C-alpha cells in the first residue's frame, strides 16, 4: 500500500536537460498521508521503546537507583536535566516494566535484536532511481539508499566517456527484463540504469529515446541514422 | 564559433553576489556559448575592466605568477562576460545579462544568441582549507605501479599471478573489441571536452576572485582623501612597532636560523646513513633467490618499514614544501599531504599505544612470563604428549597398526621430551626476554607484536618440524601407493608422455608389488592420524600468526588521517562530482521586467566525498589476497596429499605498507642535494611590509592549514 508499481516522472526545465525519475512512491491522498504519519509515529515510538529497554539493561544502576534523588527540577538547558529526565523515565511505570523485561532477556539476544529493529525502523518505504541527462556534460545515475541514514549513491559519466546507450534484455528468475545500459569507454562493466527497480519495457524505451535526444545535438543524430 | 543548438552553459558560483547593485561579470570563455563566471566587479565600467584585463592590472600583487593559473585553466585570457543588473545598456551578442538580488532565489540570465540556457551553480572550494573538486576519487595509495612490480616479483604465488595477468589481458582485449560494436562514434563537442578544464577553473575560482576583488580598487576611480591626524598617529605607531619587530626577525634569520638549520640537516643525514646501513643488513641475501632477513622475521620487517618511512619523510616533506611556491589552487600535492600526515600520525599513535603497552609489560614482566611459559607448556608440550599417547592406543576405536603407531609415537615423544628440557632451560631467562620486548614497545606498539610473533615461531619450532616430518612420510606413502596401484591394475605411469600405459609385468613383480601395496595400504591410517594431528596444530599456529600480522597491518596502515578529514571536512577528500537538478516548477521567479528568459535549467554541482569502502580499498585487497592464498583449492589439495603448504609470502602481505612508500628509496647523496639546495621559505617582506604601512593587512600571511 505504501509503494506502487515503478512509475516514471520526467522533469525537463529546458530541452537540453532532463531528469527521469522512476519511483515506487504512490500518489498521495488524504488516507495515505494519514497512514504515513501513523507509521512515522509508530517508528519513533518503537525506536524510543528499544532505547529505553537498552538503557534499563545496560545503565540500570546509574539512573534508576534510589540513591540519586533530585530535590528540585534542574534547569532545562543544563546537562543535569538530561540525567533528571532519564531518572524520571527509569522510575516511571514503563521504565520499571522494561527493566523487569530487560533482566529476563540475555544481552547476547538483546543487542542483535535491537540493532535489527533499528535497521528496520530506519528503512525507507520506497525506492527512487533517477537518470539525469545534461547535454554537453554527461549523464548521471542515482539510486536512493535503503535507510534514512545515508544519501543516494550517484555516478556521473562524462559524455566523452559514453560509448553507447542501449536497451538490453536479460533473464531474471523466470522472466525477461529489459533494461537500459550505458557502455563506458575503457571499463569492463557496463552501467545499468535503474538497477534496483528495473522498470517495464515501455518506461525503459521512453527513457532511452529521451536520453539520446537530449544528450547529443540533433543534427548529429540525423548523420548517425543516415550513416 | 556558432553552436548548432543555441545551448548556453553558464557556470555560476552560488555565493558570488546577492545584491542588486550593477556590476561587471568577469570570467573565462571556454567556447562561444560556454562561460565560466569568476567574479562580479562592482562600481566600475566595462571598458575599464576590459582594458585592465588586457594590460594585467587586475593581476598585480599576485603572490605567484598568474601565467600558471592561465595554464591551469586552459585559457590564455580572462574576459568581460557581461553585465549584472544593468538593464538598458547595449552589450555584444555573445555577452550575457544577469539579474541577481535579494528578490531572486537564483540568477536570471539572458543572452541574445542563446535559445536555451543551463546554469550550473557551484560552491567555490576554499583552497586555503585545501578543499578541492575532482572528477576521479582521490588516491590514498602511492600508485599502482609499485604494487604491480612487487606483485609479480613474488615467486611462490607465481602461478596465481600469471593467472591474474592472463585474466587482466583478456578483459583488456574484450574492452578493445567492444569499441568496434558501437553504432556511431559521437564526435565530442567543445563543451564536452572542456570538463577537465572546468574542474580546474572551479578549483582556482576562489583565489582568483579574491585577487580580482582586491585589485579592482586600482581600476576604480575614487577621490583620494588625506589621512586625518588621529589616523596618522595610529599609522606612525604601527610603523614603529613593525620596524622593531622586523629588526628582531632579521637578527634571528641572519644569525640563528642558518646554524640551527645546518645542524638539523647534519643530524638528519647521520640518521639517514645509519638507516642505510641497517637496511642493507636487513635486505642482504646470501644468493639472489634466497630469503633475506626481513622475509623471515616479522621484527626485521617492522624495523625495515620504520626505517623506510624515516628515509622517505624528508623527501616527502621537501615536495610538500614546494607547494608553497605555487598557487594554493594547485591540487596535485594534496594526496601527498594526506599521505605524509597519515604516516606521521600512525607512527605517533603507534608510539603512544606502545608506551601504554610497554609500561604494562615491564611492570608485570614476571607475571606475563609466567603465564606465557604456562600456556606454552600446557598447549605445546603436555597437550601434544597426551594426544600422541592417545593415538598410540587405538584412538576412537580405530584399530591402528600397533607397532608403527608405537614407533612413530615414541619418536615424537622423545623429541618433545628433549624440547621440554630446552623450554625448562629457557624459563629463567623468559622474564628478561619479556622485559626486553616491553622495553622495545617504546618504539611503537607494533614492535612487541612483531617480536611476539617471532617468539611464537621460535617456541613452536618442534611442531613445525613434526608437521614437516609427518607430511613427508605421508606424502611418500601416498605416491608409492599411487604407483603400486597402477601396478596392481597392470598399468604404469609413462613419465615421458605423461600418460598411463598398460604394461605386462612378470608374476614375481606383480606378486611383490601387490604384497607391498597391501602392506602400505593397511599402514596408511596410522600415518594419516599422526599427519592430521600435526597439520591441525600447524594450521592453528599459522592462523594465530595471521591474526598478529593483521593487527600489525592495522597499526601500520590504518587511514586514520583520511578518516578524520572525512569527518572534519569531507570536501578535502573528493570522490567525484554529482549534479542536482533544481526544481523550478514549484518556485518560479518573477520574470524580469517584461523580457522572459529562454528555457533555463538550474543545476547544482556538488562534490561527492570519498566513500568509506574506497578508503579501506587496500584492506579489502589484502583480505582477498589472504583468502585466495589459504582457501584456494591448490592449498587444500596440498594439505590432502601431504605436500608442504607454503606460508603466504611476506611481500604479498606487506604490499599494503609498501603502497605508502616509493618502490626505490632516494639515496643519501640525493637527499643531501635536496636538503642543501632547498630555497629558504619565501618571506613576503617587501610586499607585506609596504601594505602594512597603509594600515591594512592585505597580503595574507597567516596561511594556515588545519590538520
Automatic annotation (TrEMBL), chain A:
Pathway: Glycolipid biosynthesis; glycosylphosphatidylinositol-anchor biosynthesis. Pfam families: PIG-H (PF10181). Signal peptide: none annotated. The keyword Transmembrane applies. InterPro entries: PIG-H, PIGH-H_dom. The keyword Transmembrane applies. GO terms for biological process: GPI anchor biosynthetic process. Keywords: Membrane, Transmembrane, Transmembrane helix. It comes from the Eukaryota. The chain crosses the membrane at residues 34-55, 101-122. Residues 131-195 form the Phosphatidylinositol N-acetylglucosaminyltransferase subunit H conserved domain. One of its GO terms (cellular component) is glycosylphosphatidylinositol-N-acetylglucosaminyltransferase (GPI-GnT) complex. Belongs to the PIGH family. PANTHER family: PHOSPHATIDYLINOSITOL N-ACETYLGLUCOSAMINYLTRANSFERASE SUBUNIT H. This is Phosphatidylinositol N-acetylglucosaminyltransferase subunit H conserved domain-containing protein.
Automatic annotation (TrEMBL), chain B:
The chain crosses the membrane at residues 344-362, 404-421, 433-461, 473-490, 510-534. The keyword Lipid biosynthesis does not apply. It holds the Pfam family Gpi1. GO terms for biological process: GPI anchor biosynthetic process. The keyword Repeat does not apply. GO terms for cellular component: endoplasmic reticulum; membrane. Keywords: Membrane, Transmembrane, Transmembrane helix. This is Uncharacterized protein. It comes from Oidiodendron maius (strain Zn).
Amino acid at each position: 500500500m505504501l509503494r506502487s508499481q515503478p512509475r516514471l516522472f520526467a522533469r525537463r526545465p529546458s530541452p537540453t536537460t532532463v531528469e527521469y525519475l522512476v519511483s515506487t512512491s504512490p500518489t498521495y491522498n488524504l488516507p495515505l498521508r494519514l497512514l504515513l504519519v501513523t507509521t512515522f509515529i509508530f517508528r519513533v515510538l518503537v525506536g524510543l521503546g528499544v532505547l529505553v529497554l537498552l538503557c534499563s539493561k545496560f545503565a540500570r544502576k546509574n539512573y534508576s537507583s534510589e540513591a540519586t534523588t533530585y530535590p528540585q527540577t534542574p534547569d532545562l538547558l543544563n546537562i543535569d536535566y538530561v540525567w533528571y529526565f532519564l531518572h524520571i523515565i527509569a522510575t516511571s511505570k514503563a521504565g520499571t516494566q522494561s527493566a523487569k523485561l530487560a533482566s529476563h532477556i540475555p544481552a547476547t539476544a538483546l543487542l542483535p535484536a535491537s540493532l535489527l529493529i533499528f535497521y528496520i525502523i530506519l528503512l525507507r518505504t520506497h525506492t527512487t532511481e533517477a537518470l539525469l541527462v545534461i547535454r554537453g556534460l554527461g549523464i548521471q545515475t542515482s539510486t536512493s539508499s535503503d535507510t534514512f541514514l545515508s544519501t543516494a549513491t550517484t555516478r556521473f559519466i562524462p559524455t566523452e566517456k559514453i560509448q553507447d546507450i542501449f536497451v538490453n534484455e536479460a533473464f531474471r528468475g523466470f522472466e525477461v527484463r529489459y533494461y537500459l545500459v550505458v557502455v563506458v569507454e575503457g571499463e569492463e562493466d557496463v552501467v545499468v540504469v535503474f538497477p534496483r527497480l528495473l522498470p517495464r519495457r515501455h518506461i525503459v524505451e521512453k527513457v532511452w529515446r529521451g536520453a539520446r535526444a537530449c544528450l547529443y545535438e540533433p543534427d548529429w543524430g540525423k548523420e548517425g541514422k543516415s550513416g | 564559433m556558432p553552436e548548432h543548438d543555441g545551448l548556453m552553459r553558464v557556470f555560476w558560483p552560488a555565493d558570488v553576489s546577492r545584491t542588486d547593485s550593477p556590476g561587471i561579470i568577469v570570467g573565462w570563455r571556454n567556447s562561444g556559448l560556454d562561460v565560466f563566471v569568476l567574479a562580479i566587479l562592482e562600481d566600475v565600467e566595462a571598458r575599464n575592466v576590459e582594458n585592465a584585463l588586457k594590460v594585467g592590472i587586475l593581476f598585480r600583487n599576485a603572490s605567484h605568477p598568474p601565467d600558471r593559473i592561465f595554464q591551469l585553466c586552459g585559457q590564455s585570457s580572462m574576459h568581460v562576460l557581461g553585465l549584472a543588473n544593468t538593464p538598458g545598456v547595449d552589450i555584444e551578442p555573445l555577452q550575457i545579462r544577469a539579474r541577481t538580488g535579494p528578490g531572486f532565489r537564483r540568477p536570471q540570465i539572458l543572452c541574445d544568441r542563446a535559445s536555451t540556457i543551463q546554469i550550473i551553480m557551484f560552491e567555490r572550494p576554499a583552497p586555503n582549507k585545501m578543499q578541492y573538486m575532482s572528477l576521479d576519487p582521490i588516491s590514498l595509495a602511492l600508485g599502482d605501479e609499485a604494487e604491480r612490480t612487487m606483485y609479480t616479483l613474488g615467486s611462490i604465488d607465481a602461478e596465481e599471478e600469471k593467472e591474474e595477468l592472463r585474466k587482466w589481458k583478456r578483459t583488456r582485449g574484450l574492452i578493445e573489441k567492444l569499441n568496434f560494436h558501437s553504432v556511431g562514434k559521437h564526435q565530442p563537442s567543445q563543451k564536452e571536452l572542456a570538463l577537465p578544464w572546468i574542474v580546474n577553473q572551479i578549483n582556482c575560482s576562489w583565489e582568483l576572485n579574491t585577487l580580482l576583488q582586491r585589485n579592482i580598487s586600482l581600476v576604480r576611480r575614487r577621490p583620494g582623501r588625506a589621512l586625518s591626524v588621529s589616523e596618522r598617529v595610529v599609522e606612525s605607531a604601527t610603523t614603529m612597532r613593525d620596524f622593531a619587530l622586523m629588526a628582531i626577525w632579521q637578527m634571528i634569520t641572519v644569525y640563528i636560523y642558518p646554524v640551527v638549520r645546518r645542524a638539523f640537516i647534519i643530524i638528519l643525514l647521520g640518521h639517514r646513513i645509519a638507516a642505510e646501513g641497517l637496511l642493507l643488513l636487513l635486505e642482504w641475501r646470501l644468493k639472489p633467490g634466497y630469503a633475506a632477513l626481513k622475509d623471515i622475521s616479522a621484527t626485521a620487517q617492522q624495523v625495515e618499514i620504520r626505517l623506510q618511512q624515516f628515509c622517505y619523510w624528508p623527501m616527502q616533506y621537501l615536495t610538500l614544501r614546494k607547494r608553497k611556491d605555487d598557487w594554493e589552487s594547485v591540487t596535485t600535492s594534496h594526496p601527498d599531504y594526506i599521505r605524509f600526515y597519515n604516516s606521521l600520525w600512525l607512527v605517533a599513535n603507534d608510539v603512544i599505544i606502545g608506551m601504554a603497552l610497554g609500561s604494562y609489560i615491564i611492570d608485570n614482566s614476571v607475571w606475563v612470563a609466567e603465564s606465557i611459559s604456562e600456556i606454552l607448556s600446557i598447549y605445546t608440550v603436555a597437550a601434544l604428549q597426551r594426544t600422541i599417547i592417545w593415538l598410540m592406543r587405538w584412538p576412537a576405536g580405530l584399530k591402528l597398526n600397533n607397532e608403527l603407531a608405537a614407533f612413530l609415537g615414541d619418536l615424537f615423544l622423545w623429541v618433545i621430551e628433549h624440547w621440554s628440557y630446552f623450554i625448562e632451560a629457557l624459563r629463567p631467562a623468559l622474564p628478561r626476554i619479556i622485559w626486553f620486548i616491553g622495553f622495545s614497545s617504546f618504539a611503537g606498539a607494533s614492535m612487541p607484536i612483531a617480536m611476539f610473533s617471532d617468539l611464537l615461531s621460535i617456541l613452536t619450532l618442534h611442531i613445525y618440524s613434526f608437521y614437516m616430518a609427518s607430511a613427508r612420510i605421508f606424502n611418500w606413502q601416498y605416491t608409492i601407493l599411487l604407483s603400486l596401484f597402477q601396478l596392481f591394475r597392470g598399468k604404469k605411469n609413462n613419465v615421458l608422455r605423461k600418460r598411463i600405459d598398460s604394461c605386462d609385468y612378470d608374476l614375481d613383480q606383480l606378486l611383490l608389488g601387490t604384497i607391498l601395496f597391501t602392506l602400505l595400504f593397511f599402514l596408511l591410517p596410522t600415518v594419516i592420524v599422526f599427519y592430521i594431528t600435526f597439520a591441525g596444530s600447524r594450521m592453528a599456529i599459522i592462523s594465530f600468526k595471521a591474526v598478529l600480522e593483521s593487527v600489525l597491518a592495522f597499526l601500520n596502515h590504518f587511514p586514520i588521517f583520511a578518516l578524520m578529514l572525512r569527518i572534519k571536512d569531507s570536501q578535502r577528500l573528493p570522490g567525484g562530482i554529482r549534479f542536482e537538478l533544481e526544481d523550478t516548477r514549484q518556485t518560479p521567479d518573477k520574470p524580469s521586467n517584461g523580457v522572459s528568459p529562454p528555457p533555463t535549467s538550474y543545476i547544482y554541482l556538488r562534490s561527492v566525498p570519498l566513500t568509506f569502502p574506497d578508503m579501506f580499498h587496500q584492506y579489502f585487497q589484502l583480505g582477498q589476497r589472504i583468502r585466495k592464498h589459504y582457501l584456494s583449492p591448490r592449498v587444500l589439495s596440498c594439505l590432502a596429499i601431504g605436500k608442504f603448504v607454503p606460508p603466504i609470502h611476506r611481500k604479498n602481505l606487506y604490499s599494503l605498507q609498501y603502497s605508502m612508500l616509493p618502490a626505490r628509496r632516494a639515496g643519501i647523496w640525493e637527499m643531501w642535494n635536496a636538503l642543501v639546495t632547498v630555497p629558504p621559505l619565501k618571506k613576503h617582506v617587501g610586499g607585506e611590509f609596504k601594505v602594512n604601512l597603509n594600515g591594512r593587512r592585505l597580503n595574507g600571511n597567516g596561511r594556515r592549514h588545519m590538520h
